[in-house]
Write a structure and sequence with these properties.
It is a single chain. The chain starts with a strand and ends with a helix. Strands 2-3-1-4-5 form a five-stranded parallel sheet, with helices on both faces. With about 210 residues, it is α/β, with parallel strands linked by helices. The protein contains eight helices and five strands; from the N terminus they run βαβααβααβααβα. Helices cover about 55% and strands about 15% of the residues. The protein binds thymidine-5'-diphosphate. The site of thymidine-5'-diphosphate has 15 residues, from helix 1 and helix 4.
Length: about 210
């Protein structure tokens, strides 16, 4: 049974839009879901998110960054995700453990096997049943993020958006490698398509897997 669905992908791949679309699709089919995200899915997590993404010019060591994401996750699982699953909701989560492997592992170079152990501690054994990997060329994702910044009332570039294109290429390759290694859980979606087409692809899979 599918109870926990994660959405993964690089910056600007459209996860947030797709989670909203799936939430309303599930509602239209009479299923209650809870949409949440990392970092920042709890009130403590919102503080952690601020530290992580808005530290200005302060340098954060890669291991400090890692432990902040893990702290956010541990709180999120125990306060939000597990109770929602126990209450019979389908949880839709914008990023989860695979983001740690992609960004802190493939991106920052921390040993991936070690990260899996840390993830095991932080997720308290709660694992996604299904993971949508929204994949598109890095240049397209970054162009969408830049566009979003230009349209924002208070434009604010986060630390990852300042990273070079090679960093984002490593993240993309890492996600794709994880999807190949775990084909039963991952569904790779072509996120270069228009949002409606991405949503249709996701709904088709949900129709097979959930209904
Ligand atoms: P966010 O603004 O939520 O980005 P997006 O809209 O692309 O999801 O910022 C979250 C950032 O945190 C994103 O760049 C990925 C990064 N991240 C990690 O590096 N490790 C993690 O474990 C998680 C959950 C996120």
């Amino acid at each position: 049974m599918i109870r926990f669905v994660s959405f993964e992908g690089g910056d600007g791949t459209g996860k947030t839009t797709q989670i909203r679309a799936l939430e309303s699709y599930l509602r239209s089919r009479g299923r209650s879901s809870l949409a949440t995200r990392e970092p920042g899915g709890t009130s403590l997590g919102k503080l952690i998110r601020k530290v992580l993404l808005e530290v200005g010019d302060h340098e954060i060591a890669p291991s400090t960054e890692l432990f902040l994401y893990l702290a956010d996750r541990a709180q999120h699982v125990s306060e939000v995700i597990r109770p929602a699953i126990d209450a019979g909701k389908i949880v839709l989560c914008d990023r989860f453990t695979d983001s740690t492997l992609a960004y802190q592992g493939y991106g920052r170079g921390i040993d991936v096997a070690l990260l899996r152990l840390f993830n095991d501690v932080a997720d308290h054994g709660v694992r996604p049943d299904l993971t949508f990997l929204l994949d598109c060329p890095v240049a397209l994702g970054l162009a969408r993020t830049n566009q979003r910044q230009r349209e924002a009332a208070q434009p604010r570039e986060d630390r990852f958006e300042r990273e070079k294109i090679e960093f984002h290429e490593k993240i993309r390759a890492g996600f794709l490698a994880m999807a190949r290694a775990e084909p039963a859980r991952f569904r790779v979606i072509d996120a270069a398509q228009a949002a409606e087409d991405v949503a249709r692809d996701i709904q088709k899979i949900v129709d097979q897997e959930i209904f």
